[in-house]
Amino acid sequence: MKKAVGMEQTHPLFRQVYEFILNRIERGEWRAHDKLPSIRLLADETKVHRLTVFKAYRALAEHGKVYVKDKSGYYVSPDSLLPLDTGEGTVVSSYQLTNPLSDIQRIPAKYQFSQALIDPNLLPNLFLSDYVKKVFDLYPKVMGTYSSVQGDEELRETLSQHFRQHHRLQLSAMELLITSGAQQAINLVARILLGPMDTVLVERPTYSVAMDIFRREGARLIPVEITAQGYDLEKVETLMRKHKPRMFYMNPTHHNPTGYSVPARQRKLLVELAERYRCMLVEDDPFRDMYFAEEPPTPLFAYDTEGWVIYISSFSKYVAPGLRICAVACRFPFMERLITAKSLADNGTPLLNQKIFLHYYTSPRLQQHLGKLRTALQVHKEIMEEELAAAGWEWTAPQGGLNLWVKLPSTLSVEVLFRKSMEQSIAFVPGEILDPLGEMKSWIRLSYSFASEAVLREGMQRLTALSRTL
Ligand SMILES: Cc1ncc(COP(=O)(O)O)c(C=O)c1O
């Protein structure tokens, strides 16, 4: 039989048949209540003994994925796509092509709290045009040239120096790749690392688009709870030992949506676990520079000497979202594979964007802008918090980032609130979208960074007033 990628040595034969069948159910080849192939047929097709197929069907029936009808055979259970509790971590089914966050964000809203983006009025748009002019003077042929696939060398040199000086990352320009946003970086990493049925650890809750990308590759998600204290490392170790995940996708600094930061002592231990269990840590870090009082702990990448951390540092949020510049740091030989994946995706991020970014990024104006932006974001956060406090809703005040993760009273249905608030042009993200298990139904994510102060205040007052009527 054709073995699932990465399963060859670690799974007994009946388990491979189990996953072969489940894989096809999850891809939608067989739907709820469809009759499945007979044991004899499947044994012939997969070239294994009939008893092995019988054992696989029996395990699928035990896990509620299929059901038996007397004398007639096996059928797909209507619950086959529900999360499966393995006793040592819940595994969520794969192969879905969805992006519910984007579906919400595409709906126009006057009170926009669903977008973790910064109000364009808080960005230095006027100054940016000076840098555009400068770039055309310095590089008259910039529009007539492709970038190298890995990214402009001058930019990579500058960023590697920046990472060395500011974040203690030992990096050369060769160990950086420029992508079009963090989202492209996550896509490329997923393409390289994941095959059907591979497992991925993801935080619970997490950035839903990353989950959608992993599901599209056919990977299975295993949730790891994130709290204000970080992760339960014993649990992480158990999950790594038991499920042998290909990677742990994490956003450990001003985490989206909770705002939590994983403490420094856990970061070093996580890298040790990654080395021991050969699990890549994909550290997505787009909110690092958006802190209120203190700088966050050093990236996990700083502790990695053996190449188990891929560090994704997007500047798309706060420097110039229109340029979509992001840097990915990783060691060879993974970098080689990443460059090939990038060449297949778009053959290099536009050179013009990289050069404009470079000149703005290295200017003193950026530092002035950052200081002001942090203050402005804190003011936005406090406005939202004042309105939440007045409504009696619960949240943990974050030390940075763009979102509040809010728990609503259990008497309030988020589903109803969402529908009614959309009617009043108020947008937010229901928590269940950000939960790999699709639960967290009393939680919502509210982004305070996109609406202006006045719109933020008014929208929050409308939202909380609306909730009182429900
Ligand atoms: C955790 C996280 N990663 C990645 C992204 C996407 O970033 P980019 O705009 O650089 O593609 C976001 C956007 O909200 C995010 O919250």
Automatic annotation (TrEMBL):
Entries under CDD domains matching the protein: AAT_like, WHTH_GntR
Protein name: Aminotransferase class I/II-fold pyridoxal phosphate-dependent enzyme
Family: In the C-terminal section; belongs to the class-I pyridoxal-phosphate-dependent aminotransferase family. Belongs to the class-I pyridoxal-phosphate-dependent aminotransferase family.
Keyword Lipid metabolism assigned: no
InterPro entries: Aminotransferase_I/II_large (IPR004839), HTH_trans_reg/aminotransferase (IPR051446), PyrdxlP-dep_Trfase (IPR015424), PyrdxlP-dep_Trfase_major (IPR015421), PyrdxlP-dep_Trfase_small (IPR015422), Tscrpt_reg_HTH_GntR (IPR000524), WH-like_DNA-bd_sf (IPR036388), WH_DNA-bd_sf (IPR036390)
Subunit text: Homodimer.
Segments forming domain HTH gntR-type: 11-79
Alphabetized SMART domains for the sequence: HTH_GNTR
Annotated keywords: Aminotransferase, DNA-binding, Pyridoxal phosphate, Transcription, Transcription regulation, Transferase
Source domain of life: Bacteria
Organism: Paenibacillus monticola
Cofactor field: pyridoxal 5'-phosphate
Molecular function in Gene Ontology: DNA binding; DNA-binding transcription factor activity; pyridoxal phosphate binding; transaminase activity
